[in-house]
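RECORD TYPE: inverse folding
INPUT: structure tokens
STRUCTURE:
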């Protein structure tokens, strides 16, 4: 009886660790994509206009 309980507990424990690892592996790329998007949006919002050599003003190009 104790052996069966120990086996069930070990299976549940390893299943939980596997689920945690899977969640981390799915979450990290998503977080990096969101961070890159937000950084790009911030850069495009705070980007200043650029003066060219001829003195004309060139607006920054936003890629969407």
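DESIGNED SEQUENCE:
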């Amino acid at each position: 009886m104790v052996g069966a309980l120990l086996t069930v507990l070990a299976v549940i424990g390893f299943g939980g660790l596997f689920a945690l690892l899977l969640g981390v592996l799915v979450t990290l790329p998503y977080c990096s994509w969101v961070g890159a998007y937000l950084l790009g949006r911030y850069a495009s919002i705070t980007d200043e206009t650029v003066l060219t050599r001829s003195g004309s003003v060139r607006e920054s190009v936003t890629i969407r």
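NOTES: Helices lie at 2-46.
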